[in-house]
Amino acid sequence: MGITYLRRRASESVSGNVKSGSMEKVCKFWAEGRCVRGGRCRFVHSWSRGDLYSYLANLHGHTKAVTGIALPHSNSGDKLYTTSYDGKLYIWDCHTAKTTAVINFGVPIGCLINEGPWLFIGLPNEIKVWNTQNNATTGPEITITLDGEGPVGQVNCMTVVNGTLFAGTQSGQILAWQASSDGASPTANLTFIPLGVPSSMKHGGPVVCLCYGGNRLFSASLDHTIKVVHILI
């Protein structure tokens, strides 16, 4: 599995060997690093066209579907975090596109989001919380155990709204916690207090997407429905 890393640029054209009469298709051998035709190849040797983006890197490491990408606001801001159903969290150096650390959770990771320097990692029946400003590579410090009505399963999606964490689960439930800090600093410890969620928010299938806007929480499910709930937080 790979993650394509692009850079947006305003004026410089993207390089490639596109010639008159060439096929508008990326050369599969070039993508694998083994095209021997070079400038004589009739296929495109570039991931993108135009003057806005340029290909930088393809990040290889995960062995199953990638489920989350996060770039936390930390002191350095030079680390990219990715998760996958392979149960691993990769940390990448944004300057070299190389892996700096791998954390194996041993279970599928359903989603990954960040809020400031904080990472939230969705696992089966729990959420790991990690302040990357305290430590960038050693792993999460906080575990939120999911306590719903019956089994909740994999956490598929999350969003943070004004200090409240919402999580959508495989069982169709949406759970919520209010974050409470012991100080004003971004590195202060957090505790998460469970909040009651109306049963009307529960879906008949796995919740796969959450979005907040205009005092409304939107949730989408594999049961083919989208629910809209008015919340005041």
TrEMBL record:
Entry protein name: C3H1-type domain-containing protein
Residue stretches of each WD repeat: 59-102
Metal-binding listed as a keyword: yes
Keyword annotations of the record: Metal-binding, WD repeat, Zinc, Zinc-finger
Zinc finger (C3H1-type): 21-48
Domain C3H1-type, chain residue ranges per copy: 21-48
Gene Ontology molecular function: zinc ion binding
Membrane-spanning intervals of the chain: none
PANTHER family: PTHR44489, ZINC FINGER CCCH DOMAIN-CONTAINING PROTEIN 59-RELATED
